Amino acid sequence: MVDGYLRQSPLAHLHLDARAANDINVTDAGLMLGERRHVGMINLRGEPADPAFAAAVKKAVGVALPDGINRSSGKPLSIHILALGPDEWLIVCPPGTEDSIFGKMTKAMKPLHAAVTMSSEARTVIQLAGTDARNGLAKGCPLDLHPRAFGPGQCAQSILGRADILIHQTGSNAGSSDASYDLFVLRSFAEYVWTWLEDAGREYGVKVFSPAEK
Amino acid sequence: MLLIPCPFCGEREESEFHQGGEAHIVRPKDPDELSDAEWADYLFLRKNTKGLFLERWVHLHGCRRWFNMARNTATNEIIAVYKMGAQPPKAAINKPPKTAVDKPPKAVGKGAKK
Ligand SMILES: [Zn+2]
Known about the structure:
The complex is a heterodimer of chains A (about 210) and B (about 110).
Chain A: H1 16-22, E1 31-36, E2 40-45, H2 51-61, E3 72-74, E4 80-85, E5 88-93, H3 98-109, E6 115-118, E7 123-129, H4 133-138, E8 155-160, E9 163-172, E10 179-186, H5 190-200, E11 206-208
Parallel strand pairs in A: 1-11
Antiparallel strand pairs in A: 1-7, 2-5, 2-6, 3-4, 4-5, 7-10, 8-9, 9-10
Helix pairs in contact in A: 2-3
Chain B: E1 3-6, E2 10-13, E3 18-22, H1 36-43, E4 52-58, E5 66-72, E6 78-83, H2 90-94
Antiparallel strand pairs in B: 1-2, 3-4, 4-5, 5-6
Bound molecules: zinc ion (ZN).
């Protein structure tokens, strides 16, 4: 684990807080972009058919495993779990809580056939919101993002532009085109994805914001 | 662009996948017993079938899992996908593959024979 004072976002050089302060009065942007920094992420492999496994995860994390692959459980700003594959999950938790959850998880998984890996530093999270969040994302992502195919509580690993991403739809507003997403982006691709999104959003107007943490 | 039904994620675009060559190649139980030619055959030589072909695919930019596919290499028709370690579904294999050369379309409209 990294010492707190050494931690730096891969987008630190873009000075996003200063840009957010500058954009605070922008009201006509269709695409809102912000970075959630230092979000805790723990990769989990295990046997979902083993009832002891699911029970142990729920006990240690406080959130049950999602119902199926490419689904999420828990609350987006609090601890949540994304199902990445038939035997793989990503436990996502608020900044600063990952060490304690990692400790609980390694202890809980010890008697089981499972693997727990801290991967917080591997990725950062870009938040996407606004009336054109879906349109902007759809420009470079082969997923079907239409509400009939992809909605809140669903996640998927896919491509954006030329980068691998993990998308989690966190919200939508009934009766409007509003949608919000968390994009989990590998560190070395973070600047590429961020600038790609800014470019994609130019026709809708882009507003940079500083996401609130609990 | 193909729409490929990943056995885990459902239909996704081809750009998320990678093809991994011929499926169901079994590693010889005792490699020391093989001649160089037999070993080379196991290691390097693959079929290049026109028509029904059993091959491996990986959902590289998605769930990153490998799976098998029965595909007609001439028409790109995906006949079945099935998990690693499984045998191809019989129904898929017995289905006569469509050929790339389609029959000329039937004449329609004026002058068409009834
Ligand atoms: Zn998949």
